[in-house]
Structures are given as C-alpha cells and as structure tokens.
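Recall that a protein's primary structure is simply its ordered list of amino acids. Everything else, from secondary elements to tertiary packing, is in principle encoded there. The following example makes that idea concrete.
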Amino acid sequence: MALSDELSKFIPKDFGKKSKKGVKGGAASVAGTTAGYDKPTKDTSQKNKSYPKSNTLSADISSVKADAGATASTGNASGDVDSDQRLPVNHHIVLSSGKKVVSTLTWDAAGDTLCSGTHSGQMNLWDFKTMDGSFQPTRTMHPYEEGQRQQIRIARFNHDGSSILICSSADPRAKLLDSSGRVVREFKRGDMYLLDMRRTVGHVAPLTSVDWSPKDPERFISSAADSTVRVWNCENAAGQELVLVAKSDVGKRRPVISSCAYSVDGSMIGMSQVDDGSLSLWAANASAKRPTHQLKNAHASGSDISFVFMPDARGILSRGSEDSMVKLWDIRKFNKPLAEVSGMHAAATESNLALSPDSRHVLVGLGRSPQGDGGGAGIAVLDTSDLQVRRRLDMPFSSDVVSVCWHPHIDQIAASSSDGSIGVFYDKEGVRGGALLCAGRRIARRQVSEITGPIITPHALPLFKDEPSAAPTSAKRRRAAERTKPGVPVYGHGSGGNIGVNETQHIMKTLMKDTLRDEDPREALLRYAQVAESDPMFIAPAYGDNNKPVFEKDSDDESSTEQPLKKRK
C-alpha cells in the first residue's frame, strides 16, 4: 500500500493547459532586484518620488528613514546582496594629465570619450576606443592663447557628444569646441561701462559655470561674477536670449553667482550666490525680475555652492565650500533642509556632486580637513533619502578629490585629484564601454624605424651615397623666421617688457578721430590772410617791387661760351 502511494505521486491526475497562479513573493523579488547596482537601469519609482509632508523637521527625516528601511528589508528578504556592495569600484585605471589641479570632468553620451580641464589651462581628451595600456591622452589642447592660459573651471559635453562648452576663471566669454577640441565659436563680451546688466549683450565679469539645456540641444546657460545668468543660442555668437539678474542684501556691489544648472525637465534654472550663500530658482521660459523660489543663507556666507536637481524636479542637493555641509532640500518647503550632513570638506571651488544612475546615491569628493581633524581624501557615498554615509571609497592617489562624474549608461565613475591624476572605476561585469575598452590592452610597440637612426657609410661608392638633404637648411630658415616674427599683442598685464593692451585704448582711438579730411582748404588758408597783412615779414620781401630783376644775358656766339676741353694728361 505504501508502494502504491509513492507511485501515485508520479501519475498525472488531469490533462490540458493549467492556469498560472500568482506568487506572493514575486513583488519582493522584483523590488530586491531594482534596489541593486547590477545594471544602470532607470528606477521608475524615483519619478513619482515625493518628500513627506510634515510640520516638523524630525517627522520628515523619520518618515524618509522608514521608507528607506522598508526598501532595504525587502531587498534583503529577496536574497539580494546589499546595494552598497555593488558599486562599480572593483577595478580602476589611473590617467595622468599633468601636475596641476584637474578642476572638471565630463563624459560624452556614449561613454567612449572623457574630457578633463586643469588649472594650467590645458584640456585632455581620452578616447577609450583607441587608447592602449599606456593610458596617454588622445589629444591635448589649450583653448586660450599662450599668454592667456587660464584655469578651466567647467567643461560640459552636449547631449550627442559633438560639442564641448567651456568657461575659464578670467574670461567673460564662453567657448564652444567640437569633439576634437578645436574652437568653433567664442561668444560675445558685454559692455563693462553699462550699469544695467539687462542692456548689455554678454557678461562683463569672469564666468563661473555653464550648463546645457535638457530640452533644446542648441541652448545653454552661463553664470558670472556680474550677478547675471544668461541664456544663449550656440548657433549665434551674439545669440543672447534671456537675462536673469540676481540681487543681494549684503553690501551694494553686484553678487557673484557661483553656479547655475537646469532642472531635469528644463522648466527651472537654479543659481547660487557667494555673498549670502543663497539658492534661487527661476522660470526658464520667461524673463522675470524675481525668482519663483529663493532661500537666504542656505549655506555659510562666502561659500562656493554647487548643487544638482533630483529627477523628480522637487528635490535639490547642495554643497557649500565654507561650512563643509551637504543638504537636501524640497522646493515645496524651501525654508528648512530635509536632511544635512557635515564634514564634507571641499578641495577646491569646483568641487561638485554626482548622482548615481538610479538617483538613490550621491557621490561627494572629499579633501583633507584644514584642521586635520577629519578623514583623508576620498569619495563619500551618501543616501539621497537621508544623507547617511553608506560607504567611503579610497582613491588610488593620495591627493584631494576635486571633481566626480558618474556615467548613467556605462555605470562607471571618474574622479579627479589636485595632483593631476584621474581615477576611472568600473566593474568587469558592467556594460562594455569606457575604461573596459582599453583596460586589457597592451602597450603598443614602437616601430624599428622609430628606434634606429640613419645608417652612415662614409666609404661607400659615389653611386650609392645619399645626396645631402635640404631639410636642415629649410629648418634653419624656419627657425630664423620664427625668431624674427613680430610680437603678438599682449592682453591683460604686461610681461617681459611688453606693455599690455586694454579696452580703454581701443575706445579712446574711436573717440579721438582725425578730422583733417572734413576741413575746407580755402577756409583754412583764409585764416592766415589777416596775419599776412598785419605782419608782412615773410610775404612782402618775396613779392615786393624793391628787388631788381636779374636776367641771364644771351650771347650770339654760343661757341664762345663753351669751355675748351682739357687735354688728358
């Protein structure tokens, strides 16, 4: 009987198609998969994410923490590894761009090219498709002239990776470069003698930040130390379309705008001010005199504030350089931060924030504390819900971390340092692209012709001797021409005994015009008629009747007047 019961388990009781029944644990497994860092997929729950409404700050933070705890418990119940352990930092490569501070990093849309800018005015392009194991830059360029090498503050690839927008620390004009690093367009400078910043086309003070519009690929914004944020059309060098003028209660001077950025949907423009540490939001489609949202003293006065918008266009993450704090804001309740964390020391004024592809984490580049009481340099990984430090990443270099960038598609992290090094972190199981394309390549061998020199045979037959090349002579002439090349105009402060040229000299040349062509010559001569009559010192002796005329005497015999020819001795 027992044997028949065992066999009956394998005998089918019914036939036909069976209906699938739902499993209760299915939702938990899906939630656990979404919580990880396996693939750089978009988290649909972030689009409808809203910060909790409450009357007190403690209630806001507690509710957000409860939501985060529920998500974490669901992920652990599904059997997934914690998401903090799935950051793409298992492997890395180190790129060298010199010895100066690497102030900015930007990635193209495909993740195949990385662009870096330094405080020496040098920009490097790293093409991972063609780069070998030596990790040398594909192209090195200086967008500014030899005598005007300035610190590159911000560089941004556009959405399709065909153009690069840059701004420097001492130039009020933004420059547009193509994907190979050549300057395509330089935008217009404003009139520094106009007091109303709305009436001048262009900035009159050095730029501080630039950002592309997420909607229109031909439009971008720029901020400067002249209290304005301007909207430009990159198809026209003088294509200024909109001017936003900020005001400050601190002193009577113009406030300095430290950074500007578009919201994710492109409906708002955010800007931060250095003087009072304020944050303000403006409508992006209309010229307004006042911001729609403004928060005074968001960070300490004198702080260079960098910020990023959350994908839901309601949350803002900001970072201050003076107070070393990172804060989370909700624009619906813009008077108090939802969460904040201290001890985030900035290594430079260009130190920024970088969101993860699913917007659940934010990277903060850290520098050494001036007092020496904090930790060393590295990257802090914060949770965007409550700004808790989930992990701290150590760098392959010992200097401070300045700029960080997290590519949303290939899921790789790039971090720059203050000693010219760039670390690119990746995971071998990630998307094929970026550093994965060149990490395993060998260093290309040099050709034999590049190593060995020319073969010299002084005792060869005349038929087989090489004729002397004209290259040394042409090179000598070229060097002589370069030595005698006239000096280019020196802009700014003079150097090497050369006097600098400023705009005042050009303006005075246009004001002091030569009006000699407009004068009437007859009227100019008649001015001296009265002087000639009253004082005929030079006129009367020449044309008076007192002088006796002296005429040449004519001779009939022309031969008598001729001198006899002298005989040659």
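Residues 57-77 form the longest helix (21 residues). DSSP finds ten helices and 28 strands in the chain.
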